[in-house]
């Protein structure tokens, strides 16, 4: 029962969170997927030659560039015909797509994604956003408060 018993203990009240224990026994909570990814890359010496700041910067820059390519491909090239990426039922891929489309629209309007420009992605977005429980959640004050807070946090 994470939401009732542990959610309030996380840094941002959301998952993912990586819990690590230091050599001295201190427990650390690392929130957010990208922060976790960066921490693990550093921990497992995946940021270039250890101690070489420029190597680390280059690795981070190339990793960021690769993520940009993935995002570009995903949002501009990938197509879906029936409203789902895999099979004929809702999957994590569908949810991630709908979230990405929503965030992109919040930041750029219809500059990069729309029914005309990206019909497959738009179909997934509309399919996911027609789920009755999601429609009900988005109508709640809690959702509206979280959405407003997120937009304020990024400067909108």
TrEMBL record:
<feature type="domain" description="GST N-terminal">
    <location>
        <begin position="1"/>
        <end position="48"/>
    </location>
</feature>
<dbReference type="Pfam" id="PF14497">
    <property type="entry name" value="GST_C_3"/>
</dbReference>
<dbReference type="InterPro" id="IPR004046">
    <property type="entry name" value="GST_C"/>
</dbReference>
<dbReference type="InterPro" id="IPR010987">
    <property type="entry name" value="Glutathione-S-Trfase_C-like"/>
</dbReference>
<protein>
    <recommendedName>
        <fullName>Glutathione S-transferase</fullName>
    </recommendedName>
</protein>
<feature type="domain" description="GST C-terminal">
    <location>
        <begin position="1"/>
        <end position="146"/>
    </location>
</feature>
<dbReference type="InterPro" id="IPR004045">
    <property type="entry name" value="Glutathione_S-Trfase_N"/>
</dbReference>
<dbReference type="InterPro" id="IPR036282">
    <property type="entry name" value="Glutathione-S-Trfase_C_sf"/>
</dbReference>
């Amino acid at each position: 029962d994470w939401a009732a018993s542990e959610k309030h203990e996380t840094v941002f009240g959301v998952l993912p969170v990586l819990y690590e224990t230091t050599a001295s026994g201190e427990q650390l909570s690392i929130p957010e997927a990208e922060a976790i990814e960066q921490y693990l890359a550093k921990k497992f010496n995946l940021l270039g030659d250890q101690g070489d700041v420029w190597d680390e910067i280059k690795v981070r820059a190339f990793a960021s560039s690769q993520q940009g390519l993935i995002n570009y491909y995903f949002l501009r090239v990938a197509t879906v015909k029936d409203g789902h990426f895999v099979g004929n039922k809702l999957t994590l891929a569908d949810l991630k797509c709908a979230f990405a489309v929503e965030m992109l629209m919040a930041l750029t309007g219809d500059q990069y994604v729309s029914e005309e420009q990206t019909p497959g992605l738009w179909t997934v977005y509309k399919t996911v956003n027609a789920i009755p429980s999601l429609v009900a959640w988005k109508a709640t004050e809690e959702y509206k408060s979280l959405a407003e807070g997120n937009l304020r946090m990024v400067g909108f």
